[in-house]
Amino acid sequence: MHKVRKAVFPVAGLGTRFLPATKAIPKEMLTVVDRPVIQYVVDEARQAGIEHLIFVTGRNKGVIEDYFDIQVELVNTLTERGKKTELSLLEGLQPQPGTASFTRQQAPLGLGHAVWCARDLVGPEPFALLLPDMIMQSERGCLASMVELYEKTGGNLVSVEQCDPAETNKYGIVGHGGAVGSGFRIDGMVEKPEPKDAPSNYFITGRYILQPEIFDILETQEKGAGNEIQLTDGMLKLAEKQEFFAYPFQGRTFDCGSKEGFIRANVAFALWRQDIRGKVFDDLHKLMATVEPYGERSAAE
Ligand code: UTP
């Protein structure tokens, strides 16, 4: 079985839910505590043993490429000033030369199209796909656990979590076809089913290990929901020929593409950090006791 060596990060979306910030800053570069969202996802890929990072970027996303490059002036200035801690922090961030590739999705035609744009860089081998706006908090990275499971199952693998059974119509839902190792075999995938039609309440959460045959399917795929080329439609076709498995992730997931998810991520990762946890915890308590919705007081007077 081929090892999973490459990971694809589709970062070409418009991020309309985060306007006006995303007019000038890619949403993947918004910071959770002190590092951009994309850094958390890249760290998760590295922890899983990924050797090559493939970014599918778009217009206005050049700053992502700069972020993963060496900043010579900054390094020189920090060296002159003897800032050893800051220097070692930067050293760990950038990929080794030749281990990161960038390609452009020239128009945001959908996630399925963004993944297809990576076909030549991935080549004929299985690959990991990480949606960079979903960040995950757990001692062991979600993708590392998935790679371990994949070594037993082969095929295709997606991370899942359980949603409120009344809310299956918000998610891509998979059916539980029997346990396999730390996961289960998928016996059906349905996009946003009504609760009465849902095969389970397990929904797909943003980490995938896919076989390269997905590219041939995406190549000829028609536009689907939202007039975009949808990855889920491609996976449904692939599932007619190949097996799919699910890995139920046990940690916390934050959708940093939504305002609420992004704020929850900031709070959760700040509380996770030993250096700032105490202060943040106290401040949040005080804020919750004193801040009222803007305009409420004057409306009452
Ligand atoms: P989202 O559905 O979150 O889309 O895409 P978006 O356009 O970035 O955000 P909103 O909904 O307008 O606020 C999920 C992932 O797929 C990527 C996004 O960058 C995100 O990581 N994507 C989406 C692409 O790379 N290209 C696309 O055409 C669409």
Low-confidence stretches: none
> Which hetero compounds are present in the coordinates?
uridine 5'-triphosphate
Our count of domains comes out at 2
- Give the SSE order as H and E letters: EEEHEHHHEHHEEHEEEEHHEEHHH
Can you count the helices?
A: 12
Give the rounded overall mean pLDDT. Answer: 92
Class by alpha and beta content: alpha/beta
State the end-to-end CA separation. 70 Å
The major β-sheet equals:
5 strands, mixed, barrel
Strand fraction: 15-25%
Strand order of the largest sheet: 8-11-9-10-12
Overview of the molecule:
The protein has 301 residues and is α/β, with parallel strands linked by helices. It has 2 domains: 6-257, Spore Coat Polysaccharide Biosynthesis Protein SpsA, Chain A; 258-301. It has 12 helices and 13 strands. The chain has helices at residues 37-47, 62-67, 72-80, 84-91, 111-116, 119-122, 142-153, 213-219, 231-238, 259-272, 277-290, 296-300, and strands at residues 6-10, 31-32, 35-36, 52-57, 100-104, 127-130, 134-137, 156-162, 172-180, 183-191, 202-210, 244-248, 252-255. Strands 8-11-9-10-12 form a 5-stranded mixed β-barrel. The protein has a two-stranded antiparallel ribbon with strand order 2-3. A two-stranded antiparallel sheet has the order 7-13. Helix 8 (213-219) packs across helix 9 and helix 10 (259-272) crosses helix 11. The mean pLDDT is 92. The structure holds uridine 5'-triphosphate.
